[in-house]
Amino acid sequence: MFGKKLGVVAASIALSSVVLSACGGANGNEGATQNQDAKPAEGKESVSLWMFDADPMYQAAAEATAAEVGVDLNYEYIQDETYKTKISVALAANELPDVFQQHAGKSYRTPVLQSKTVAPLNDTLDSTGLGAKFLDNQLVKEEDGNIYSVPSNISTTLVFYYNKKLMSDLGATPPATWDDLQALVTKAEAKGIIPIALGGKERWQGDLLYNMLVARQDVNAFDNAIKGDAKFTDAPFVDAAKQVATLVSSNAFQKGFLGSAYLDAQELFKNDKALIWIDGSFNFGALSKAMGDNLGYIAFPKTGVEDVYSATIGFQNSAAPYSLFVNNSSKHVGKAKEFAIKLSLKLNDEFVRKGLPGYAASEVKSESQNEQLSAYATDISKTAKTQAMWFGLLSADTGQEYRDMTQQLYGGNLTPEEYTAQLETLLRSAE
Amino acid sequence: MERALSDKKLIALFLVPGLTIFLIFYFVPILMTAYYSFQEWDGINPMAFVGLDNYTKMFTADKSFWKAVWNSVAFLLTGVFVQLPLSFGLALLVSRKMKGRKWFRNIYFFPVVMSTTMVSLLWVKIYDPNIGMLNTLLEAAHLGSWAQAWLGDTKTALLSVLIVTTWHYVGYNMLILFAGIQGISEQYYEAAKLDGAVGWKAVRYITLPLLSDVLRICVVLNVIYALKTFESVYVMTNGGPLHSTTMIALKMFQEAFLKQNFGYGSALAVFMVLECLIIAWVLNKVLTREKIEY
């Protein structure tokens, strides 16, 4: 263990001596950490927690849980993109906090499990009886039969938001089909309104939009192709790539979208400069707060042969959800386990209070939902399939290559045919 | 004291602690990085020796590597042939005995005091094609056709980043050159004046030759800075769009910390270290000349 730790620390020092002084980030608050260093009260155990979710709800829930469990909390919020780097180094060097959050997806979950630094939670889940509160299949049982994590977020999906004021100014209605969407793009562009705001710098929004367009062509296209029953050069992939190319050539995205950061692009939408915003359902609360009744929502249009309720794109998959893990080297591993499980349930209560479907039983009553959120909840209940975003099903290396490649499609460096041919090579070799 | 300073063994003894720290925290990690560059390693699972595979991949299969090398050359050339002459011009200007020269000196130096992250974020906002100041000013000046998606277009992204780094560091070289100019005795200029060498001739035949050592240092510093550029690119473009602004240091970071390819990331780090050492050595050889004295 010591050798590996020394190796990673040395590699990190050497590699980062040139670069890490700038890990301050590409966005305004990137790299920002919010560390509440509470001095442990006498006799009280302390638990350190790393989180990447900026919603104040997380910190409030963590503080309430710490009080309930009777520990001092050292809560550290780390901006999302910085977190990905920090956690991978901490994992390899076994410098983890007592409890930490991890992103959804295989590329993030596998290294955590392979590092053998996390503690199984089965004993605490059983002894406290809290395990029974989680709904079926919400606790991921790994190959060795152990449960190493508890959920830290509900299932979130891709959402098609629109700006009601701009839609009204255009005298248009939200698009129901691909033709509608194209017509709307043309109309908005002619009036000097950005049709779709897209943060191309981080690449994931474009990636998810392509996943969605493929799912609308054939709901099972990805599953079949990844299993080897079909190819990534088949019609659904090519047709969806052509749709991306069409959107780009018709100036559907803002000028310079490939260099736009996600938060900057979001500002265009919130400030009535962009008509459509493709984002996760996790942003309903923040966008509703910022835009009020101006925020519109529809199920993603029928851009292919599949119905609007055939599928949506999920940010997590059942095997690798957003999770809380406990460091097995924690000085207070027992308390840390109890804290993590109770925090997961406390967060579940908060989601249920907001009217969202939780991952565990809750006695909390739902507050009234706004119109858009209730429409979304209804649509999700009607949706037949949640296709996990492809990136989450790939290894870190392949996932990054895939996103680079998709950005080349958006940038016009690859034709739809070239893109899908390269996709076939990349994903087939990674299989 | 004098006897102690002439005792080489004693001097060596005093140097040991510093040298030990240097070796442990600087030299050993570099050697270990070289070792990792021959491994396939994700930072978690056991390493696997792959020989020169990472280097073969770097030179033959990784398309964005050569883009990064070219971008480093672009940074290097801009640093030496654009930034340095600008700095020299500014140093000459603020060396003149004129009113407010201190004020100008501080103004030109001010960007250097600001952190690279801050400067980069500031320029991201200025360059924003939709709400940024630059395009708004161009449109107000009826030059709307010049408006660009500065950082979002592969044709303009590198140039846009180069402009920012030039603006940011021009004052740094200016200050070094200004100090050099201040060190040139006034009597040379007076003697030259008698021979009819004033204005540009004085600069050409007095200032430049006597500044050669300072200029050499500036060139070496500029070149090394150019080769290891990371912060400004990371913040402004993250190497995009489509790798048009990627740099070796940025690729190293992405490979090691995002893709978890510590082995390949280490190979890139080794390349960068060797590249810096070789170019610095060549520059020292090429630019070293006999000290000029009048």
Task: Describe the overall structure.
Chain A contains 16 helices and 12 strands. Chain A is an alpha/beta fold and 431 residues long. Chain A has a 6-stranded mixed β-sheet with strand order 1-3-2-4-11-5. A 4-stranded mixed β-sheet of chain A has the order 7-8-6-9. Chain A has a two-stranded parallel sheet with strand order 10-12. Chain A is globular. Chain B is an all-alpha fold and 294 residues long. Chain B has 14 helices and 2 strands. Chain B has helices at residues 2-5, 8-36, 53-61, 63-95, 101-113, 116-127, 133-140, 157-182, 186-194, 200-210, 212-227, 231-236, 248-258, 262-287; strands at 39-40, 48-49. A two-stranded antiparallel sheet of chain B has the order 1-2. The mean pLDDT of chain B is 90. The interface between A and B is large, with 54 and 57 residues. Chain A: Keywords: Signal.
Which CATH architecture of the largest domain in chain A is right? 3-Layer(aba) Sandwich
Largest sheet of chain B: 2 strands, antiparallel
The whole-number mean of residue pLDDT values of chain A reads 88
Order of helices and strands of chain A: HEEHEHEHHEEHHEHHHHEHEEEHHEHH
Pfam family, one (chain A): SBP_bac_1
Organism (chain A): Paenibacillus silagei
Keywords (chain A): Signal
Signal peptide (chain A): 1-21
Q: Any descriptors?
A:
heterodimer; A: 431 residues; D-Maltodextrin-Binding Protein, domain 2; 6-stranded mixed β-sheet; 4-stranded mixed β-sheet; B: 294 residues; mainly alpha; two-stranded antiparallel ribbon; flat
